[in-house]
Amino acid sequence: MFSEVYDVIVVGAGHAGSEAAAAAANMGSKTLLVTMNLQNIAQMSCNPAMGGIAKGQIVREIDALGGYSGLVSDTSAIQFKMLNKSKGPAMWSPRVQSDRMMFAEHWRLRLEGTPNLDFYQEMVAGLILEGGAVVGIKTSLGLKIKGKSVVLTNGTFLNGLIHIGDKNFGGGRSGERASTGITEELIQLGFESGRMKTGTPPRVDGRSLDYSKMVEQPGDEKPSKFSYLDETKPLVKQRSCYMTYTSPEVHELLKEGFDRSPMFNGRIQSVGPRYCPSIEDKINRFADKDRHQLFVEPEGWNTCEVYVNGFSTSLPEDVQFKALRSVVGFEKVKFFRPGYAIEYDYFPPTQLKHTLETKLVEGLYFAGQINGTTGYEEAASQGLMAGINAALKVQEKESFILKRDEAYIGVLVDDLITKGTEEPYRMFTSRAEYRTLLRQDNADFRLTQKSFDLGLASEKRLHKMEEKKEKSLSFVDYLHDTSVTPEFSNPVLEAKDSAPMKQSDKIFKIFSRPNITMEDVMEFPGVNEFIADNELNEEMLEQTEIQVKYAGYINKEKNNADKLHRLEDIKIPQNFDYSNIKSMSYEAREKLNKIQPVTVSQASRISGVSPSDISVLLVYMGR
Ligand code: FAD
């Protein structure tokens, strides 16, 4: 049935698998996507939303690299918000509320429209290996399919165990069976595995809710979008979300179920996401808080199903139901599905190289939740990187690695493989030391050329980015070179309570003042003409504003990143043995031997490796 040898076989069509398959196929590799249920491609297992703080930046990066997550998010969005708009641009984070069904449908359509990509529905039960390298997969029905590389993206399915109150049963997600066989085989091959858990709230019937008692949360008045391409458009119509709160009464009702909670009676032992706790965890840990926010989020344009964000729980269904009925606006609530928790196997990501290829088995890549991460965006970006690198390896080309000052994706991968993770890893802006450089507005500047060189970004995309860059930079130059006299500037400055000028000065300098906006600058003679003559669009104007206002911060971070590159340039030989470096701490030697960092810079980021260990290492590297 499968006589040909695929270049890349991707196991699992979640967010990681879908991006991996698209990238490999778009790079010309003959690719097969094998998944347990083709109806559930890119299923949103939890909240119907993409982006958010730091995650929105990742979606923009995926888009700039030629991935599909941004395009699909745009076409299935029901609401758009730019979060943190009151803070500096490094913190601006796009987020959409998604139509869950449309999201999965649009992903499937895009994948079906991708050349070089075949599909097959079955559970993969094992790998075929030859001399330390993977050469294919085995399915649960005994089919053998040959491939030069395999990307595993099993998500929450590996020996998945679902918990609701005191009941538990095997499953990879509600209504879907767990995946068995792979963990056991990988352990036999020498891999280390662990167990994590996550949870999800109940979904309810929107027709049973009283929205008049809740606070409306509309989308942005001027919505933007994720993709840099013109192929998608900002939303014209949006759906609102709503906000309500729990209360002491709700908390008391929830506590009635604590003795049957798998979280508290010891049935769930594994670690869950600390920043995304269940409602029972919240009322237990923050006992002094008498209420918690709940966001009531529609699941799509045409469905009445509603997601109760903030009420993730694995308490018994009757307890969930009774407690939710005491929430304001939920007095007559009807359930569609109860909340639940799930435990699953993961593989500590320190077993991977920067390419996401495993150190133990050549040609085998891991991406997504299998690496101990959580979140669609984290998964999708790893899938993209694994798919790209698997394709490059088969094509015998140099691997593709993003540095920490180039992309959040670079930070994510480097954190995972260097530090590992003991709890579900999600991205935060605080994880990136160069977040002023890694903004959502400039992911195209940072990554489009790279993507074009890989064969992913089209020439059209590249030209669009170059035009934006050239035009916004020429406007910055114009503002640097053009002066304005007090006669024109002072009325504007006075209206903004900004100190008046005594003599002519460059517009750039005036624009750098904190409360002076692009609209103010447009009142100076010649500026509007320059904008019109050069056909500068809104995106270019925004880019110019950021380049002027944050020039100091941006330059400082660029200098710091350059310093890092000096350490990044000092390579450590492969399989370097640290055991005999007695002047290094025992812990450092042990960690360095295990992780085998590629550069001195990577070594310095390993927990337990101190600056003095690095000084010793530098001497060994001849510095
Ligand atoms: P998944 O989306 O899980 O996809 C895995 C895919 O692999 C599926 O298509 C599956 O069918 C397929 N597959 C698995 N094994 C095999 C096999 N052997 N053979 C063939 N196909 C296989 N994230 C958050 O950020 N916040 C949350 O609050 C949150 N809560 C969650 C709650 C629950 C109950 C669940 C299930 C997930 C939750 N997540 C949450 C996580 C989020 O859904 C994942 O991070 C994301 O979907 C991971 O993407 P992935 O591609 O790695 O895996």
Automatic annotation (TrEMBL):
Gene Ontology BP term (one): tRNA methylation
Binding site for NAD(+): 272-286
GO molecular function terms noted in the UniProt entry: flavin adenine dinucleotide binding
Entry annotated with the keyword Cytoplasm: yes
Entries under InterPro entries matching the protein: FAD/NAD-bd_sf, GIDA_C_N, MnmG, MnmG-rel, MnmG-rel_CS, MnmG_C, MnmG_C_subdom, MnmG_C_subdom_sf
Domain tRNA uridine 5-carboxymethylaminomethyl modification enzyme C-terminal subdomain: from-to ranges: 548-619
Localization terms from the record: Cytoplasm
Cofactor(s) the record lists: FAD
Alphabetized UniProt keyword annotations: Cytoplasm, FAD, Flavoprotein, NAD, tRNA processing
Binding site for FAD: 12-17, 124, 179, 369
A single cellular component GO annotation: cytosol
Major location category of this protein: cytoplasm
Protein's job: NAD-binding protein involved in the addition of a carboxymethylaminomethyl (cmnm) group at the wobble position (U34) of certain tRNAs, forming tRNA-cmnm(5)s(2)U34.
Subunit-structure text: Homodimer. Heterotetramer of two MnmE and two MnmG subunits.
Family: Belongs to the MnmG family.
Record's protein name: tRNA uridine 5-carboxymethylaminomethyl modification enzyme MnmG
Biological source species: Gillisia mitskevichiae
